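User: My collaborator sent over this chain with a note saying "see what the structure looks like." That's all I know about it. Can you take a look?
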Amino acid sequence: MNPLCRFTPRHTARFLHAVLLWLFCFSLLPLHASAQDMETPPDSSSEAQTDAVPAAPPSFEQLVQQLAGGSLRDRAATVQQLSSQSDERLADIFNALVSGDLLANKDKPPVVAIRNGEQLTDALTGADLADSKGLRRIPVNNSLRTQLRGQVAQLNLNHPNTDKRYAAVQRFIRDGVDVETAALLRSHQQVEESGRVLDAITTALAVFQLQSPDRDVRLAAIDELSGSLEQEARNALRGIAENDADAELRSAAAEAIESIQGRISFYRFVENLFFGLSLGSVLLLAAIGLAITFGVMGVINMAHGELIMIGAYTTWGVQVLFPDLIEWSLLIAIPAAFLITALVGIAIERGVIRFLYGRPLETLLATFGLSLVLQQAVRTLFSPLNRSVSSPEWISGTLSINPVLSITYTRLYILIFGLMVFFALMLVMKRTTLGLKVRAVSQNRAMARAVGVRSSWVDALTFGLGSGVAGVAGVALSQLTNVGPNLGQAYIIDSFMVVVFGGVGNLWGTLVSAMSLGLINNFLEPYAGAMLAKVLVLIMLILFIQKKPKGLFPQKGRAAAD
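Assistant: Without extra context I'll predict from the sequence alone. Here is the result:
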């Protein structure tokens, strides 16, 4: 029997139903898959998306905190990342890291602090930190330190302070200029306004161009460096003058070095001139009070040096009494020293000297004894040890005019101060009633008494004025040397030399004499030494007095004839 015959209509219907059922099931499969996708937790898709997006770079604060931990290699990488930041705090952080003043603790996140003396400040917020517990120095090696110095130099190149920018260029010159640094300097050269910084940039670029293979470029660089005073420029030129194969380059470098040496000699002379005038201002301050007591009154006061010492101790005492006013201590000490030494001078005149007028030998011996008494009194009160006087911030440091000429602020201010004291004293002597009476008594005591001048009180006030000026001199000297009981002994002989050389009783002569002796002594010291220079000055002064016993500017008139 044929099998096909077995398919009845009923069988056909069942077969069609089965096919339709399978088709229906297959049609439901996509819907089921979609439903499963919809039932997937949302976190899975977000996590996949997060993995695909790169992490955000660390912030400036996070990078600074990273400096506290990790290895030196990790720290170097962090420094490299920080160098790309444009944060104004970065220079202070790098400087502190180089100097070993960047501290951190082990907190999470750590506290990073900058140490400035005894003060601690938060490196990120700038707030003062009272507690240093747990803070330890962040270590660096020499390689990282060199990297940091270079980074600091680049940061300081854009610093608003001119000295910072100049120091940055100096750093580039010392460390050597490469192609990248040269490009940086050229770009900054277009916007730099300071002439001093521009000169340093020109020097740095010229030193870099000395390495050029182009001969004309090297010649132009040598010509540019012929006006530079930088030590590195001289070293580079000296290397070419001694070792270069090109004869023309060697000759040009030698001429440039000779030109530079001529400029250096000139600035050395100017520097010696300034130091001579500053030494003269010290002598002026020490002698100007003696010019009144000895020159005007005719009193040989051997205790004048001790009055200077009292003024110096007054300055030290002001700083002890007002430790929080160091910046104002000198301004407070000047009137205080004047008043104290003036009162001491009046007491000396009223107690001793007024009984010895007209007897110079007895006056000399009495004031010499007073000097010993004052020295011992100071030793008893303050001990024989020397005392150090702190200098305010505004009088400290050095004024750098160029790489070979520098002037210390201390000596500059003392020079200005000495001239101010001189002209103030001249004003008192020429424009005040006291000055008129002093001149009247010094020229003719009997006639001054006849017109009603109380000569005894004029003598006391004159001696007090000279003593007060000596105390002011002590304030200035306290900034140059330590304060001790023997401070004044080093200046008493020099003070008499200045007064005698300038002309007894002539304040203008005292000024010229002080500056002249200061210059002569300063120019002799490099050749003869300090002690021999003083001896030579004394010999020259003795020979001069033999020819002109009344000094450079002797008094004129009837008083001088007497």
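A starting point for your reply to your collaborator: The chain has 23 helices and six strands.
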